[in-house]
Write a structure and sequence with these properties.
Blueprint: H1 13-17, E1 33-39, E2 45-51, H2 53-56, E3 61-66, H3 67-72, E4 104-105, E5 111-117, H4 120-127, E6 131-136, E7 157-164, H5 166-175, E8 178-190, E9 198-204, E10 209-214, H6 219-230, E11 238-241, H7 257-269, E12 273-276, H8 279-283, E13 288-300, E14 306-318, H9 331-334, E15 345-354, H10 368-386, H11 390-397, E16 406-407, E17 413-414, H12 420-430, E18 442-452, E19 462-467, E20 473-477, H13 486-498, E21 505-509, H14 526-552, E22 560-563, E23 566-569, E24 575-577, H15 578-582, E25 587-592, E26 602-612, E27 618-628, H16 635-654, E28 686-691, H17 708-724, H18 739-751
Helix pairs in contact: 10-17, 13-14, 16-17
């Protein structure tokens, strides 16, 4: 019988490794029309005309739909779900994002028309016949204030936002006995999940609705955004089903024009429609991530105590504001602006700019990586100024355990029940501080950082647990697994609470017809949200079962005890099993989320690197971490989450960069031939250690750590790189730390 804390294998893995997983692309309706999208070949321009007549007349084509038809059918637009308010109290500028545009194109890859045909081959052939006349204009790129790309939005500025006290913090930095500063560009990234976007829509004539099967991180959120905004439909017209999902990381959590177009085409034609994105297509259609330009400053005293921090950010938002995008460089950065340190004054100013690029949005870390990068680089710079050990300067500034809960200078509350110094020390002990070598062509460096991540997600969660007399338990949850192991973790939680074998529990998710609401998965919050709600639902099952058991055992409900899957009369051996109590009618309970989403997992990441200064070749030789995950449900799955996040963080530091041509707005790194992803051979063995102190914010005491490594690994590696290059005069090296960039930085420093 699996309990919380046991490292059991994943229940879902047998299905996956034997090829029985069912992803959206695996679900085919024999008579489905295949959708192929005609996309903009240019970054910015006016649509002078779209001639689809030849395509519509091509063999096997059922229809070609453009912005004209979308407007005629009353389709709406796709707004952001996370608007922010400007620092002066005015609303932000939100550009309208149509399902299919009529007037302008705003980035390469924007869908302009959809061809629907009996086979994919016929749809592809017909798509080549669609003639698009675009009057091209010079694009705005890299937070450029001109040319204006949306009417009524001067200087392309979507918002101008502030947290903390930027003016006071700037003065405190200027007045500090010592100061360090840096300029940083956070490289743009793509999600690159194994499964790209996919959608299939079927018309249910009896129900008068479209059933949309989609690869997404949340069925209910997708339904709300599609019906309320993109399609302008009554909610009952759409049902969303989510089967197995092959990786999410954030980008699958948002609404896409293609999803809306597939559902709309199905309703319009009353025929099933399917679309599966190709990999090259995904590079210019799925949201990108990161892409911030940061000027960061820190003031400190002669003892290395941090007095003030400021970060001034220009955030590239892409052509439109995607689902959670405005919250990423604003509140996402503000939550970790001062890290794990006791800093009395801090300020963050963020300007978000529209550019002619693919929109960006939340991706593993969601705003925290650039803030933590700048903060932890500043701390290392301060240590260098004072001649202090990198671990010691961090230890001096940590919020002490007895000061928790602690309110930061930006108003965020670091929850109680943590020991920051213990996590720092654990990681420091795992590193070889005598490794550093700074003579000869081969140099070695060591780096460390303190790390945290505020978990976040939607509290719109309802969980349902049904116990059947045949010995099965079915649990429905509103979060959505994209590979994390929800079926195992949630079953463990219920098995522990109900005292039954984990194999008797089936966890289900992803159907808006089966559960009245659910917030989906994001922000490393699934265990806190669904785990806590399932715990409370199990308690309600027990409460309801006690009343039934009292009748069966002919006693008062107050005399009934529950343990080990049985109800018993206190002080006697009279008992009845949970499944006998459920009987033919079953036993069912629902509960809404009743805890706090917020919790702050914390930890430290360390890295060791080796650099050949003659070629710039770099090798990551060690990557370690120590995190406090709160209540550990399954240590095996926890380690997997940690390893995955660290690898994605390493990818950000060393390889990944979604580069654009700054004249044309064409995505240069648009395939895996050009966009480098981390591979097993590039990585050392990863060491992940854990601390377990319970968070007081939820009934489980859990803290989600799924994004911790993605936050901390980039700057731990950066600190190791700078450590290895110390004395060579390299000061302006930015990630990804490719051999060419390292080689060029060393040569530039030698010239100076």
């Amino acid at each position: 019988m699996a309990r919380i804390g046991e490292g059991i294998g994943r229940k879902e893995d047998l299905r996956f490794v034997t090829g029985r997983g069912r992803y959206t692309a695996d679900i085919e309706t024999p008579d489905a029309l295949h959708a192929v999208f005609v996309r903009s070949p240019v970054a910015f321009g006016r649509i002078a005309g779209i001639d689809s007549a030849a395509a519509a007349a091509a063999p096997g084509v059922a229809a070609v739909l453009t912005g004209r038809e979308a407007a005629a059918d009353g389709l709406g637009h796709i707004p952001t779900g996370a608007p922010v308010t400007n620092r002066d109290g005015t609303p932000m500028h939100q550009a309208r994002r149509p399902v299919l545009p009529e007037a302008q194109v705003h980035h390469v890859g924007q869908p302009l028309a959809v061809v629907l045909a009996r086979t994919r081959a016929k749809a592809l052939a017909a798509a080549e016949l669609v003639e698009i006349d675009i009057e091209e204009s010079p694009p705005a790129l890299e937070c450029a204030r001109a040319p204006a790309i949306h009417d009524g939005i001067p200087e392309n500025m979507a918002f101008d936002w502030e947290a903390g006290d930027f003016e006071a913090a700037s003065k405190a930095v200027a007045d500090a006995p010592r100061r360090v500063d840096m300029r940083f560009h956070q490289n743009r990234m793509v999600g690159g999940a194994l499964e790209g976007l996919a959608a299939q829509a079927e018309y249910d004539a009896g129900a008068g609705q479209v059933v949309l099967t989609a690869a997404t991180q949340g069925a209910h959120a997708l339904k709300v955004m599609l019906t309320k905004f993109a399609l302008n439909w009554p909610r009952e017209r759409l049902r969303v089903i989510v089967p197995d999902v092959g990786g999410g990381f954030g980008p699958k959590g948002f609404v896409y024009q293609e999803q809306a177009a597939v559902a709309w085409a199905c309703w319009r034609l009353k025929r099933p429609v399917r679309w599966v994105s190709e990999r090259a297509e995904s590079f210019v259609s799925e949201v990108h991530a990161r892409d911030q330009f940061v000027t960061a400053r820190m003031g400190f005293n002669d003892e290395g105590r941090i007095l003030a921090v400021t970060m001034d950010v220009d955030a590239d938002m892409g052509a439109f504001l995607s689902g959670f995008a405005p919250g990423v460089p604003t509140d996402g950065m503000a939550k970790v602006l001062t890290g794990l340190y006791d800093v009395s004054v801090a300020g963050l100013r963020v300007r978000g700019f529209y550019t002619n690029t693919v929109p960006v949005d939340a991706y593993r870390g969601a705003g925290k990586p650039p803030a933590i990068y700048c903060l932890e680089r500043l701390v290392d710079l301060a240590a260098g100024e004072l001649g202090l050990d990198p671990v010691e300067i961090r230890r001096r500034n940590l919020v002490p355990a007895d000061a928790l809960p602690y309110t930061t200078a930006t108003g965020k509350v670091l929850d109680a029940g943590g020991d920051y110094a213990a996590a720092l020390q654990s990681t420091a002990h795992a590193l070889d501080w005598n490794l550093a070598r700074r003579d000869g062509p081969i140099r070695r460096g060591v780096g460390i950082c303190c790390n945290l991540h505020p978990i976040g997600g939607s509290s719109a969660e309802t969980s349902r647990v049904t116990v059947s007399g045949d010995g099965r338990i079915v649990a429905w949850t509103g979060t959505q697994s994209t590979g994390q192991g929800h079926e195992t973790v949630f079953a463990q939680i219920l098995a522990d609470r109900l005292g039954v074998p984990v194999d008797l529990i089936d966890v289900r998710q992803g159907d808006t017809a089966q559960l009245r609401r659910g917030g989906g998965t994001g922000g490393s919050s699934s265990t806190v949200i669904s785990g806590s709600t399932l715990t409370r639902t199990a308690d309600e099952v027990i409460r309801l079962g006690k009343a039934r058991a009292a009748d069966l055992l002919e006693t008062a409900a107050a005399d009934i005890e529950y343990a080990g899957g049985h109800f018993s009369v206190a002080g006697t051996d009279r008992r009845v099993s949970l499944f006998d109590v459920a009987g033919d009618d079953g036993l069912e309970a629902e509960q809404d989320f009743a805890d706090q989403v917020a919790a702050f997992p914390y930890g430290a990441v360390g890295a060791e690197v080796e650099i050949d200064t003659e070629t710039g070749a770099i090798r990551l030789t060690k990557l370690v971490s120590c995190d406090d995950a709160g209540r550990i449900i399954n240590p095996v799955l926890l380690a997997g989450q940690s390893h995955g996040a660290l690898v994605q963080g390493a990818g950000q530091a060393l390889w990944e960069h979604a580069a654009y041509d700054l004249e044309t707005g064409q995505l240069v790194a648009g395939t895996f031939m050009d966009y480098a992803m981390p591979r097993a051979g590039d990585l050392p063995a990863i060491g992940a250690e854990f601390i377990e102190t319970l968070s007081p914010t939820n009934i489980l005491g859990a803290r989600g750590i799924g994004e911790m490594g993605a936050n901390g690994a980039p700057v731990a590696i950066a600190n190791a790189v700078y450590d290895a290059l110390r004395g060579l005069g390299v000061t302006d090296l930015e990630p990804p730390f490719t051999p060419h960039r390292i080689w060029r930085a060393i040569r530039a420093a030698q010239v100076v």
